[in-house]
Amino acid sequence: MDPSLDTWDFSSPLISLWINRFYIYLGFAFGISLWICFQIVIRKQLFIFKGKNSKDKSVPKATRDLMTNGYISLQKKDILVSGVKIFYGSQTGTAKGFAASLAEAVTSLGLPVAVINLQEYDPDDHLVEEVTSKNVCAFVVATYTDGRPTESAEWFCKWLEEASSDFRFGKTYLKGMRYAVFGLGNSAYANHFNKVGKNVDKWLWMLGAHRVVARGEGDCDVVKSKHGSIEADFRVWKTKFISRLQALRKGERKPCGGNCKKGQCESSAEEEPFESTSEEESGTEDHQNLNSVVDVEDLGKIMNCVKKEKREKEHQEEKSTLVRNAVKGEASERRAMITPALREALTKQGYQLIGSHSGVKLCRWTKSMLRGRGGCYKHTFYGIESHRCMETTPSLACANKCVFCWRHHTNPVGTEWRWKMDQPEMILKEAIENHQSMIKQFKGVPGVREDRFEEGMMVKHCALSLVGEPIMYPEINRFLKLLHECKISSFLVTNAQFPVEIRNLKPVTQLYVSVDASTKDSLKKIDRPLFKDFWQRFLNSLKALAAKQQRTVYRLTLVKAWNVDELQAYAELVSLGNPDFIEVKGVTYCGESSASSLTMANVPWHEEVVHFVRELVALIPNYEIACEHEHSNCLLIAHTRFKIDGEWWTWIDYNRFQELVQEYEDSGGLTNFSAKDYVAKTPLWALFGASERGFDPKDTRYQRKNKSKDISGC
C-alpha cells in the first residue's frame, strides 16, 4: 500500500470539507441574508406602526399599550363623542332659549346633553375635566353693556381671561377639549359687537382647546344680520354644529380644503386657529421669511403663501365691490324692523303692530278714565282727555337701552334708519283702527261710562311715547301733519340723541326731551346710549329745544341712588334748554327684568320727589312748582311766564292749537306761533298743594284691595 494514500485517508473529512467549501460558504451567506431580511421586515413594521400612532391621535392610549411584538389586540369600537355640554350666559333670556333649542337638537341625535348656566359653574374645578371627557362643549354667550359679559357669565369670563395669560396654566392646559362658540350681540354697538363671544373663543384656543366648528355671531340688528335676524343666525350655526357633531361621532376628519396632494389631508385636526391671532402670526412669519435667508426647499412654500395672499387680496377687492353695489340697491332690499320673534314678544305684551316698524297700545290710564277712575298726569297738567288719547309710535327702534325701560328692551335699537319704511298715511290709518278696536272691547264692561266710551272712539290726542324713538322715523313731519289734519294733538317724546331732527321738526302740540341724568357719566350709566358722542348730542338736543317756539318740556325720571343727587348739574341743563315746563317723575318699577338691575328700592316715595323738586326750584330762577299728580308720583315745574295775573295757565286750548297749526301750514311755515298762543287756565284741583293732590274730582278714586295707601311709582 502506498504510504501517501494512508495519510490522505486519515484526513479525509477535512479533504471533504475543503473540496465542498464553496457550498458551505453559500449556506452561511444564505442564512445571514435571511436573518438580515427578517430584521428589515420587523423594523419596517415597527416604523409604520409608530408613524401611524403619531398621526392618528384618535387611538386611545390603552390601545397603544397593547401593541407589542408587532401586533394589535382587537378592541371594542371607541366612543368618539360621549355627550354635549351646553353652557350659556344670558341677561334677557335669549341665550338661554338658544341653549335649550340646541339641547333639543342634540337630543334628537341620541346623545346625552347637559344645559348649564355659567353662573352655577366653577371653571377652576371642572373645566379641565373636559380634556378627557370626550364631550363637546358649546358656549352660547351674550355681550352686554360696553362689551362686558352678562352677570351670569362674568366670573367664568374673568377666570378664563386670567387663565389664558397665566404661565402656570400654559398653552396645553385644555388640550383635548373640544368646543364651539355662538355669540349674541348687536352690531349697532360697533366697538363691542359680540366681544364676549370672540373673547371666549380666543381664550379657550389660547389654552389649547380645539374648536370643532367656526364661531357663530348672532346680530340683533335685522339690517346687518347675515340671515335677517338673530334667530336666523342661530339656526344656521346650529345646523353647522349638528352636522359637525354627526361627523365627529363617525370619526370623520375635517373635509379637505383641496390644498394638499390629490385632495387628501393627512392631518386630522378638528379646528382652525383663532382667526385674528393666527392670521397675524402667520402673516408676520411669512414676511419675516421673505426678508431673510431661506432654504431652497422652503422657497416653494413661501411662493405658495405669496400667491395665496394675492388671491385673498383679489377676493377682498371683489367682496368690497359687491358691498358697494349692495349699498346702492339697499333702498329696495331693506329688511323689516319687526322680525317674527320680535312680533311674537311684543304681541304678548299687548301691542297691536302696524306694518314693519310701528305699533299702538292701550294705556292703562285710558282704561281707567273710561271707567271714571281718573286720568293720567297729562290730564292734570295739560287737560288732555285720557280716554281719548292714543299711545303709538312710528318707530319701535331706539338709540338707548335705558335701565328703566318699561318695555324690558324687547324693541330693536339703532342709530339711524336702515329698515323698510311704511308710509305715514298707512301707519296713522291702522293706528286709529287698532286703537278703536281695543276701545270696542270695553263695551259692556262693568263700570265703563257710556258717554266716555262713545268719546273714546274719537281719538283727540296722540302720545308719541309708546316705545322707541319716534323722531327717527324719516317721515315724522308728514306723520305729524296728518295728525293735525285729523284734529289730533301731538305729544312727542325724544331721548335727546337727534339734535338735527329736533331742529328740523315742524310744530307739535308739545315736545318732550327726556333728561334722565345731568352728567356724562350718569347718563351713560342710566340711558346706555349707542352713540359714541352721546353727551354732545344730548347737549345739542337741549340747545335745539331752546330754539322751538311751541311748548317744550324736560322730562326728568328720578332713580333713587342713581341720579337724585345732581341738583346743581340739573339746574345748569335747565338754563341750556330753557324749557316751558319740567316734569319730575319717580321711576316706575315694571317688575323684575333680567335686562335691568332696578328694584323697588330705586323707586322714590312721593315725599322724596317733592323734596327734590323744592330743592331744584330753589336753584333755577323764573320757575315754580305748578301742578301735582300724586298717583303718578309726578310734579310739574312751570316757567313763570305761564303764571298770568297770579294764576297758572298750564293747560292747552286744543281747538286754538289746531287753528294755529292750520294757519302755519297754509302759509308754508311763514306764520308761526308760540306756546302762549294756545294756553288755557289750570283748574284749582290740579294745582300743587290742593287737597285733591291732582285727582280730578269728577272721577272716583279707586283703591286696590288690601292697600291702605298708594305705593309711589305704581
Automatic annotation (TrEMBL):
Residues 84-242 form the Flavodoxin-like domain. Residues 382-626 form the Radical SAM core domain. It is an enzyme of class 4 (lyase). It catalyses: N(1)-methylguanosine(37) in tRNA(Phe) + pyruvate + S-adenosyl-L-methionine = 4-demethylwyosine(37) in tRNA(Phe) + 5'-deoxyadenosine + L-methionine + CO2 + H2O. Pathway: tRNA modification; wybutosine-tRNA(Phe) biosynthesis. PROSITE patterns: FLAVODOXIN_LIKE, RADICAL_SAM. GO terms for biological process: wybutosine biosynthetic process. The chain crosses the membrane at residues 22-42. Residues 268-283 have a biased composition (Acidic residues). Probable component of the wybutosine biosynthesis pathway. Wybutosine is a hyper modified guanosine with a tricyclic base found at the 3'-position adjacent to the anticodon of eukaryotic phenylalanine tRNA. Catalyzes the condensation of N-methylguanine with 2 carbon atoms from pyruvate to form the tricyclic 4-demethylwyosine, an intermediate in wybutosine biosynthesis. This is S-adenosyl-L-methionine-dependent tRNA 4-demethylwyosine synthase TYW1. The gene is LOC106972846.
